[in-house]
Amino acid sequence: MDSSSYTGLPNKLFQGISSVKSTLTTGHILEKSETTHVPKTDAFHHHMARSVLGIQAPLKLKTELQIANKIGRLPCLPSSRLMADVLRGTNEDISFDDILNNPREFGELQVDPHLAMDKRDRLF
């Protein structure tokens, strides 16, 4: 299925409303803070673990987080990243992303599973 119509304009039925967000130039004041919050807290926790427990603790945690981020579902199904949340200790927190930033809730993105697998495996 082609993502653009015969007029050259994006096909809104195929791409959905969420594709409009990428064309916006300005965001909310706290958007930058929210996007950098997790990396900053991870760096802080790794620094504290290194100063208290030694070099092996942050290296082990970083390795476990990398493995947890690689685990996922099919490319057409977004993962909940539960294992990474458990390792960070944020699995019981209710944040902005849990309530208002869930594109799966509205089903705006429709992807053919076979094309997604081919793209992930770099077959075309």
From TrEMBL:
Give TM segment ranges: none
Which GO CC annotations does the UniProt entry carry? cytoplasm; nucleus
- Short name of one Pfam family: UMP1
BP GO terms, sorted: proteasome assembly
Organism, as annotated = Adineta ricciae (Rotifer)
Q: Which PANTHER family match?
A: PROTEASOME MATURATION PROTEIN, PROTEASOME MATURATION PROTEIN UMP1
**Into which family does the record put it?**
Belongs to the POMP/UMP1 family.
According to UniProt, the name of this protein is Proteasome maturation protein
* Keyword Ribosomal protein recorded: no
Q: Which UniProt keywords apply?
A: Chaperone
Q: Among its keywords, does the record have Oxidoreductase? A: no
